[in-house]
Specification:
Strand content: under 5%
Low-confidence stretches: none
Mean pLDDT: 79
Distance between the termini: 39 Å
Order of helices and strands: HHHHHHHHH
Oligomer: single chain
Number of strands: 0
Number of helices: 9
Radius of gyration: 21 Å
Structural class: mainly alpha
Largest sheet: none
Amino acid sequence: MSFMLRRIYDGFLFKPDRFHIHPLLGLTIILLQFGFLIPNINWSLALLLSFVILENIIFRNIRGSLSILWSLLPVIIILGGLTFLFGGWLLCFRVLSRFFIGAIGFSFFFTSTNPSDLTRSLEKLYLGSKVALIPSLALVIIPRIAKDSEDTFNTLRLRGEIQGGFYRWLPKTLAILIASVIYRSEFLAQSLYFRGFGIQKRTHYRKIKMTWMDVSRLVIWVTFLTLFITFNYYGTLNFFV
């Protein structure tokens, strides 16, 4: 369990010393990815998975992606085994490809998106500050909760309290975790207060601009859409539908 929590923390933690992707571009692409997960088109899922992997390789998010996949390895094995057993390799491919795309796509979004910039960008779209804050809170809280869970689990294990069935130590672990979340929420409330949360007109000390990395990522996904439209129009990959 500690291994899984550590990998979730590494795969979802924003890294300020690395590349930054424009928040609106990242949000648009993540919504685009999930939109293409809806239809059961096998070649479309394969093409999308290839581009997601390529993107993570180009922007050097291999460690984050592998961390998420390693943390979800038991789920992948169980899910892949059940879908192959009851639906064959085709259903297994459809389920696991969606799973991989979602996990890797979210990892890239979390590690490359500055939570404060995301809130600022959404406010520029005339969303209320309360609505704009929700996605940025998710970017901050999810990896922190995973880190607190890992620390709690390791502490209880060192004390010798992780013994027997999980029903013996799980309630205590959850109680400590909830207390940690409440403790963090106090500092989060103070941070929001000093940042002027709830004020009608807020000012920002810097502007968010597109960089060459944003342009490169935009080119990658325009290429994906072009290939998708081309294959769909000419029926080049109909044999894989």
